[in-house]
Design brief:
- The complex is a heterodimer of chains A (about 60) and B (about 250).
- By secondary structure, chain A is mainly β.
- Chain A has a single domain, classed as Beta-grasp domain (Ubiquitin-like (UB roll), Roll), CATH 3.10.20.30.
- Chain A contains one helix and five strands, in the order E-E-H-E-E-E.
- The radius of gyration of chain B is 20 Å and the shape is globular.
- In chain B, the strands form two sheets. A five-stranded parallel sheet of chain B has the order 3-2-1-8-7.
- With about 250 residues, chain B is α/β, with parallel strands linked by helices.
- Helices cover about 40% and strands about 15% of the residues of chain B.
- In chain B, helix 5 links the parallel strand 5 and strand 6.
- The chains are: A mainly beta (about 60), B alpha/beta (about 250).
- The interface of A and B includes residues 41, 59, 60, 62 and 63 of A.
Chain lengths: ~60, ~250
């Protein structure tokens, strides 16, 4: 199915947030996630379902003021 | 220095981590300034986030994540929740921006987001103006620290409304306050500390200086000088000259 990850369109097989992260190579990365604008805690990624057209944000630590 | 949610900072300097020419310069700036807090953000992972996290960890300072760039309550609250998990801290520098040119806080959104986050266990550092009414409302909503601006973010103008900041300091004598944003020179930081603020937060003034590490050191010394002066109970200014050398005993020539 097609979903949007960090603003770019991706074709993914996985059905959960955790699955999508693993599929895109972020399985071990220190990231924080939000699905369709709502925070998805790390512990909920394994059960949080991803469906066609969803918007997933995968954020990382970055420089800030 | 007043405590920030129970934490006594080693020095009254909070330093941003953005805009440095290189990671090595960033590390030098932290070392030479002796800053005790580093501000950080969250952005879309594009391959550099993991290395940056290691750099931040190695600085050995408190981490204060921000919600920079958020213009709505929903955006800011979601970002704060993501930051809490990422950086493993309840501290959040809450920015809800209301104007694209001045980057002025949106007081209404800021107040609402402060209430939501404080109720959720966050320790909110709201980036606010010098407005006393808003300050009172933020405290009532659960903030225990205030971060009034010196002047607009990145402007380097110093304390734009010195009178207003002085009044704010006097209005809430027990509240820890950080002057955040707009400082351009170490003298601005000294001024803020002399006015009785507990710390300053800056980024651009150091990161964009020709020699960031030297400027970082200058700011570190400046906040120390200001804090020392404040504690030493400064004299009151006078309109007229008063001779400092004794008049008594002067020769009749």
């Amino acid at each position: 199915m097609k979903i949007e990850v960090n603003g770019a369109s991706h074709e993914v097989q996985a059905a959960t947030v955790a699955g999508v992260l693993a599929e895109l190579g972020w399985g071990e990365a220190r990231v924080a996630t939000a699905l369709n604008g709502a925070f998805v805690p790390k512990a909920a990624r394994g059960t949080m379902a991803v469906t066609e057209g969803d918007r997933l944000e995968v954020l990382a630590p970055m420089q800030g003021g | 220095m007043r405590r920030f949610y129970g934490v006594s900072l080693e020095t009254p300097l909070m330093l941003g981590t953005a805009q440095y020419p290189s990671p090595a310069v960033l590390e030098a700036a932290f070392r030479d300034s002796q800053a005790s807090v580093a501000t950080v953000s969250l952005r879309r992972e594009a391959g550099k986030g993991q290395a940056f996290w290691q750099i931040i960890r190695s600085l050995g300072v408190h981490v204060l994540p921000n919600t920079a760039g958020c213009h709505s309550v929903q955006e800011a609250v979601t970002t704060a929740k993501m930051a809490r998990e990422m950086f493993e801290t309840n501290w959040i520098k809450l920015e809800v921006i209301g104007h694209a040119d001045t980057l002025q806080p949106d007081p209404f959104g800021l107040l609402e987001a402060t209430g939501v986050l404080a109720a959720d266990g966050f320790e909110v550092f709201p980036y606010t103006t010098e407005d006393q009414v808003l300050a009172g409302r933020l405290l009532a909503a659960g903030a225990q620290v205030l971060m009034p601006w010196g002047s607009p973010i990145g402007s380097g103008l110093g304390l734009n409304n010195r009178y207003g900041l002085k009044m704010l300091r006097a209005a809430f004598p027990d509240v820890p306050m950080v002057i955040d944003a707009g400082l351009g020179l170490p003298s601005h930081a000294t001024d803020a500390m002399e006015l009785g603020f507990d710390a300053v937060l800056l980024n651009t003034a150091v990161a964009q200086a020709g020699d960031p590490a030297a400027m970082a050191r200058a700011f570190g010394l400046a906040v120390q000088a200001g804090a020392l002066a404040r504690g030493a109970d400064p004299m009151e200014p006078r309109e007229m000259a008063v001779p400092s050398t004794p008049v008594m005993g002067k020769a009749w020539l």
